[in-house]
Amino acid sequence: MAANSETVYIKADRNVEVTKPDVTLGDVLTMECSNPSVVPKLNTLKLLKFHHTDKKNQNRVAISILKVIEIIHEQFPNMDIQNLGEQDFIVTYEQQQTAGGLVHLLKAACVIVITFIGAAFSIMAFNNDVDTVKLFSQIYELVTGQKSDGFTVLELTYCIGIIIGILIFFNHFGKKKFTVDPTPMEVEMRLYENDIQTTLIETYSRKGKEQDVGSTNTSGTHRT
């Protein structure tokens, strides 16, 4: 075949989510070749098949890029393959279940209430530890010469300052971001996701469950 002498560039992300049980290379890889007829053929090559055996409707499998190269070489033995992405990646199959509008609103309301209570408790605990009320009372009496009644301009500006500080720190208010930089929450979530993905890949590799060169179980799946 003419495609046998071509060079194809492949790239895989660390974690790829699919919504159908039959997974092909085109579902998990980005591929490029100077010959426009090569990539469509590679996209249709079967990588693995998930079975509906997980009660949580989710399955995961770790795959070595060498397994992908092996599959391609089975059809195009002389093809030169250049990997520009991850050496090991995770394919996650999850059946899409769209929650109703009322369920979604209830979940959002619960998250908001829990977050508000947790944040309020943390702020009150901090103020109690440093005795902010006593500190403000002393400052107010020192500056004005009058005894504080517990609600002065210091307490008011302190509350306003906390709100402004939180908004600036998290760089987010509703759907609006103040700058183009990712928020601290987004950074922490990406770090957490990277740690989870690295742990999963290493766990699969150590237990010998990673699909690698020589593995013939491309029609099954391993579950966490």
TrEMBL record:
Coiled coil: none annotated. Keywords: Membrane, Transmembrane, Transmembrane helix. It comes from the Bacteria. Residues 6-96 form the Stage V sporulation protein AA domain. Gene3D superfamilies: eubacterium ventriosum atcc domain. The chain crosses the membrane at residues 105-126, 150-170. InterPro entries: SporV_AA, SporV_AA_N_sf. This is Stage V sporulation protein AA. It comes from [Clostridium] hylemonae DSM 15053.
